[in-house]
């Protein structure tokens, strides 16, 4: 085990070896091979190329060097192409702060039985008068930046649950194609996180219809991990075997499930 793996439990080390092809004997060589590709993209400003940073991209792409480099390049390219999104990119920014306060995103205190962090969004909490959908995306990305520092989560990943209960048609009208594309590019194509499952629950018909429109733009791997359940409450109903969320985690939730959400970032 190298110092770069010091934050991993024995179980997670074995998981990294078996599932991600992580080998401590070749770890530094793997990192260097990705770093050597940086010169092939002089159009991109790679602001970080240290070992620990590159490692998270290798883990996100199961140590396929070129795929890891492509993700690294897209990470910085996305930030170059959307400069306004990353100005004042901190928890004290007014828009980000309010989105975080409203639970975009919230996180359960317990990990699931695969060691994944469970993130929960209650879509109806969005107050359009105080912050935008872009602010919500910024808050999610900022939270992920903080959480991905944890090497355990680099290996084990995340599960995302979006509860659409009481989400209005007026709110849904703001989910424009350009906004959805921005979110897909930022989360699917440009961030080194492993998402084991994305659950849409309790969505009205117009969200279900919207998903059918955006589904072709999702990668096949992502599509296989999206579970759409009409009028289904994951906090009080058993999770089907098809799902990737451990029911014993969610059963601890009660009707006041939002009170069980952990703040993911300090707002001070």
Automatic annotation (TrEMBL):
<dbReference type="InterPro" id="IPR011074">
    <property type="entry name" value="CRAL/TRIO_N_dom"/>
</dbReference>
<dbReference type="InterPro" id="IPR036273">
    <property type="entry name" value="CRAL/TRIO_N_dom_sf"/>
</dbReference>
<comment type="function">
    <text>Required for normal morphology of late endosomes and/or lysosomes in neurons. Binds phosphatidylinositol 3,5-bisphosphate (PtdIns(3,5)P2).</text>
</comment>
<dbReference type="GO" id="GO:0080025">
    <property type="term" value="F:phosphatidylinositol-3,5-bisphosphate binding"/>
</dbReference>
<dbReference type="GO" id="GO:0030136">
    <property type="term" value="C:clathrin-coated vesicle"/>
</dbReference>
<keyword id="KW-0968">Cytoplasmic vesicle</keyword>
<dbReference type="GO" id="GO:0031901">
    <property type="term" value="C:early endosome membrane"/>
</dbReference>
<dbReference type="Pfam" id="PF03765">
    <property type="entry name" value="CRAL_TRIO_N"/>
</dbReference>
<feature type="domain" description="CRAL-TRIO">
    <location>
        <begin position="96"/>
        <end position="258"/>
    </location>
</feature>
<keyword id="KW-0472">Membrane</keyword>
<keyword id="KW-0446">Lipid-binding</keyword>
<keyword id="KW-0967">Endosome</keyword>
<keyword id="KW-0333">Golgi apparatus</keyword>
<dbReference type="Pfam" id="PF00650">
    <property type="entry name" value="CRAL_TRIO"/>
</dbReference>
<protein>
    <recommendedName>
        <fullName>Clavesin-2</fullName>
    </recommendedName>
</protein>
<dbReference type="InterPro" id="IPR001251">
    <property type="entry name" value="CRAL-TRIO_dom"/>
</dbReference>
<dbReference type="GO" id="GO:0032588">
    <property type="term" value="C:trans-Golgi network membrane"/>
</dbReference>
<dbReference type="InterPro" id="IPR036865">
    <property type="entry name" value="CRAL-TRIO_dom_sf"/>
</dbReference>
<dbReference type="GO" id="GO:0007040">
    <property type="term" value="P:lysosome organization"/>
</dbReference>
């Amino acid at each position: 085990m190298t110092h770069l793996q010091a934050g991993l439990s024995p179980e997670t080390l074995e998981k990294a070896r078996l599932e991600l092809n992580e080998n401590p004997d070749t770890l530094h060589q793997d990192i260097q091979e990705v770093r050597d590709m940086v010169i092939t993209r002089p159009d991109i400003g790679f602001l970080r190329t240290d070992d620990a940073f590159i490692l998270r991209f290798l883990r996100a792409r199961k140590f396929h060097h070129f795929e890891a480099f492509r993700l690294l390049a897209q990470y910085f390219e996305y930030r170059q192409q959307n400069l306004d999104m990353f100005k004042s990119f901190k928890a004290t920014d007014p828009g980000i702060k309010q989105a975080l306060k409203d639970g975009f995103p919230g996180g359960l205190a317990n990990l699931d039985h695969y060691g994944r962090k469970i993130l929960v969004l209650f879509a109806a909490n969005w107050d359009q008068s105080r912050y935008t959908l872009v602010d919500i995306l910024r808050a999610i990305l900022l939270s992920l930046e903080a959480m991905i520092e944890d090497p355990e989560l680099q290996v084990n990943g995340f599960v995302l649950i979006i509860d659409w209960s009481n989400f209005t048609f007026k709110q849904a009208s703001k989910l424009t194609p350009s906004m959805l594309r921005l979110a897909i590019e930022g989360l699917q194509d440009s961030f080194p996180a492993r998402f084991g499952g994305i659950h849409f629950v309790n969505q009205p018909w117009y969200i279900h219809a919207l998903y059918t429109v955006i589904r072709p733009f999702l990668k096949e791997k992502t599509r296989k991990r999206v579970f759409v359940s009409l009028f289904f409450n994951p906090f009080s109903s058993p999770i089907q075997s098809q799902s990737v969320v451990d029911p014993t985690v969610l059963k601890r939730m009660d009707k006041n499930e939002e009170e069980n959400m952990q703040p993911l970032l300090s707002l001070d």
